[in-house]
Amino acid sequence: MALQCGIVGLPNVGKSTLFNALSSAKAQAANFPFCTIDPNIGMVTVPDERLKKLEAMAKPQKLIPATIEFVDIAGLVKGASKGEGLGNQFLGNIRAVDAIIHVVRCFDNDNIIHVDGNVNPVRDKEIIDTELQLKDLESVDKKLDKQKKLAKTADKEVLKGIEVLTFYKKHLESGQSIRTSVVHEEDKRFIEDLQLLTAKPVIYCCNVEEGSVVNGNKYVEEIRAAVADENSEVVIISAAIESEIAVLESAEDREVFLADLGLQETGLNRLIRAAYHLLSLQTYFTVGEKEVRAWTIHKGDKAPQAAGVIHTDFEKGFIRAQVMSYNDFVQYGSEAACRDVGKLRSEGKEYIVHDGDIMHFLFNV
Known about the structure:
Blueprint: E1 3-8, H1 15-23, E2 35-38, E3 41-45, H2 49-58, E4 62-64, E5 67-72, H3 87-95, E6 99-105, H4 121-150, H5 156-173, E7 202-207, H6 218-226, E8 233-237, H7 239-246, H8 251-261, H9 267-278, E9 281-287, E10 291-298, H10 303-310, H11 312-316, E11 318-325, H12 326-332, H13 335-340, E12 345-347, E13 357-363
Parallel strand pairs: 1-5, 1-6, 4-10, 6-7, 7-8
Antiparallel strand pairs: 2-3, 3-5, 9-10, 11-12, 11-13
Helix pairs in contact: 1-7, 4-5
C-alpha cells in the first residue's frame, strides 16, 4: 500500500518550503531518490535500518524500501469551502490522501509577513478547520436530505442513517471535526462513502526557527493544548533546516549537521514515523536473491491481507505463509538455519502479522 500524506497550510507558514525540501531530500539508499510523480506530488523512501542488514545478509539484486507520497495541496485560503482561491481543487485533493500534514507557523520573522498580520498558530489551525468543516457539512447535508426523502418507507436502516447523519451535522455545526466525534464503530458506515475531510487523521507540523527545533517554543505548546482532545500527532520541524539538509550530498555530512543541532534524525524521518504511528502501520519483509523488499500493512492485518499488498491474487488464493522474525533471521544467519532450529513457521489464514516478520506466501488461483 502506498501511503499518501497531503501537506496543507495557509500562505507564508512554510508549507512550500517544507515540500520543496522534502522533494530534494536525499534518500537513504542512493538508488532510490525522491521522484516527482507530477508537479505537486513526490515520493520518498521510508527509512528502515533493518533493510540495510537484510541487504548485507541476502545480497539481493534489488533493494526496494517502502515509500510514502507527499502531496503539496495548494489553494487554501479563507473561503476555500465556497470555492475561493483554488478551493474546490484543494478540497478534492485532500479527499484522496490517507492523512493530512497541517503545517502551522510557529516562528517570528518580521521579514516574512503573515497573511493575517501576526503569528497565531491556533487561529491558523482553526481557519483551515472551519473551511474543512463547512465542506463536510455540505456533504452531510446533501446525504441527509436524500435519506429524509426515503424516510416515508420507514426502513430501519434509513431511519438509523438519519439519526447518525443528524448527529454528525450537529457536531460539525458546533465547530468540531468529524475525527473528534464519538459514535459506535458500526455507525460510521453512514459516512464512509462521503470521504469527509475532517475525518482524516492529522499531523500538526509546527514549523519553528532553528533555536526551537529540539524543544519547541510557546507556539508549539499552544498547538499541543489546542489539539489535546484530538487523536493527532504534533511534530516539531524547521523547514529552513530541512532545506539545508536537502543539499548535503553524503549521509556523513547530514549526520554531522544534525548532531551540531542536537538532533538525531531529520524532520522528514520524524514525519514519516508520526504518520506510521497515527495510521497504525507496520512493515513486513520479503527476502530473496532477486530482491529484498519492505511492505507496509496495518497493525492487526492477517496473513492473507498482507499477501494481498503484493498482489490481489496472493490474497484470493492464499494457502499459507512461511514466517520468521527479523531478529531470528539476523541471529541465525539464514532461512535454512531458522528452519533447522524451528524458527521458520508455517502460518494459516488467521495468523496476525507482526512488525518485522519475514514472509513467503504459498497461493493458488
